Amino acid sequence: MPFVNVKITKDGVTTAQKAQIVREITETLQRVLGKKPEHTHIVIDEVDTDNWGFAGLLTTEYRAKSPKG
């Protein structure tokens, strides 16, 4: 039983986009490893940008400093 946990920042990801992630990860596991889709579990955790940091900054701060905003 494959279990995949995907963590993304919570910033406007649509239900359709999440459905596509689940579908494509499931298809990849089936194609590459021969895993049955009915046994494959995908969990998407959305993390607030104030709770995700890298490069010494919170994602919220990093994005505020970036030229794209």
What does this structure look like?
This protein is α+β, with helices and mostly antiparallel strands and 69 residues long. The protein has one domain: 2-Layer Sandwich (Macrophage Migration Inhibitory Factor). Helices cover 38% and strands 26% of the residues. It contains two helices and four strands, in the order βαβββα. The strands form two sheets. It has a two-stranded parallel sheet. It has a two-stranded antiparallel ribbon with strand order 3-4. Strand 1, helix 1 and strand 2 form a beta-alpha-beta unit. The radius of gyration is 15 Å and the shape is elongated.
Topology:
Elements: E1 3-9, H1 15-33, E2 41-47, E3 53-54, E4 57-58, H2 59-65
Parallel strand pairs: 1-2
Antiparallel strand pairs: 3-4
For this entry, give a set of tags.
single chain, 69 residues, alpha+beta, Macrophage Migration Inhibitory Factor, 2 helices, 4 strands, elongated
> What is the number of strand segments?
4
Proportion of helical residues: 25-40%
**Uncertain regions spanning at least 5 consecutive residues:** none
Q: Whole-number average pLDDT? A: 95
Strand order of the largest sheet: 1-2
What does the main sheet amount to?
A: 2 strands, parallel
Name the shape in a single word.
elongated
**Total of helices:** 2
> What is the succession of H and E elements?
EHEEEH
CATH architecture, by name, is 2-Layer Sandwich
Give a summary of the structure in a few sentences.
With 69 residues, the protein is an alpha+beta fold.
